[in-house]
């Protein structure tokens, strides 16, 4: 026991004393925040003023792009209609083409679309067919330099379709103002109803929180799993492991290494949580002034389950990496061996969107109660839903049994593998190691 604790202490202190560990511990929350918010800021900056040429083959949809009181037919500014819309400005250059061929009228504007600079440059050309008001099969066309300019396309399409609906209703004696009232969209508020009857607001905020906390749970597990694998390979190549196993059992060495690096991961996570709590307290106070209850998103059980499932996920994944280090002689060999296994272990992460949006589906429940996948999937379910307590208990029990089995297998392979040099063993050879160790 003392020897195992000595290995644990060495692994822990060797890592936490590194400058890079301290830097990354302090900078990681900022990097994660940047990874979330910088793309959003880039999208918002990219949503700046866009000049769009609208070629209207019907000649009757000018009012769809300009307010009735607007006199200037060269350009008009359209902002996001709702507060949740992405900020964007669209300068519309309206061209009526009721008595002309639509494609011929559009040609000079399509040429202007090719320009990179200049006052004549346009960012898009929107074509409305001649039969847009009369034919249900009419098709709008939008030309742009980007294949993914779906925000602009969607807003232009929405404007035209609303105007077409108003026109058709007007033909039936309904005025434009009455049509606006009839066609007005209703907002939807997402509410989670707990088993106790408590109502909690849900929606996009829960989805984002789920992704962030799940990333915090899974990333350290894989990062420190790689750390253990590389450490074992280095000690094998330096022949240090031969000295270590002469004074302690391979099992003591293995458990000491795994628990030491687990303590490193918990230290880092604790620092991140303290920093997040400080920031969250300030943000929560600000949100409270705006009438938002942050505790509906982050409950005390969220943090309790996080530490439980972090340990379970870490100990599950790290055993696999320890095997990789024991049976391989170089980082390249280990990465080739571990890569497909890692992809399999990360299957819940690849299915995260489906699990977050449907946490009680058969697939989500099956994953949460299965070995290896259980810790990650069950934690996600506790974030966005209220799974039965027996589901949580079974998931924890299955994970503990999985860890025990992995430790048993890892210890046997580790006992033979750490002193094995040369080519990487095959599956039959690993099976023989399990039987003779």
The stretches of 5 or more residues where confidence is low (pLDDT under 50) are 68-86
Largest sheet: 5 strands, mixed
- How many angstroms does the end-to-end distance come to? 21 Å
Strand order of the largest sheet: 2-3-1-4-5
Helix content: 55-70%
Give the overall form. Answer: elongated
- Strand/helix succession: HHEEEHEEHHEEHHHHHHHHHHH
Radius of gyration: 30 Å
Question: Strand fraction band?
Answer: 5-15%
Integer tally of domains: 2
Whole-number mean pLDDT: 76
* DSSP, total strands: 7
3D structure, described in words:
There is one protein chain. With 437 residues, this protein is an alpha/beta fold. It has 16 helices and 7 strands.
Q: What's this, in brief?
A:
The protein has 437 residues and is of the alpha/beta class. It has 16 helices and 7 strands.
What is the topological layout?
Blueprint: H1 2-16, H2 19-46, E1 49-56, E2 77-78, E3 89-96, H3 102-113, E4 124-128, E5 141-144, H4 150-170, H5 176-182, E6 191-193, E7 199-201, H6 204-237, H7 240-245, H8 250-289, H9 300-327, H10 331-345, H11 347-350, H12 352-357, H13 362-368, H14 374-384, H15 389-417, H16 427-436
Parallel strand pairs: 1-3, 1-4
Antiparallel strand pairs: 2-3, 4-5, 6-7
Helix pairs in contact: 1-8, 2-8, 6-8, 6-9, 6-14, 8-9, 8-15, 9-10, 9-14, 9-15, 13-14, 15-16
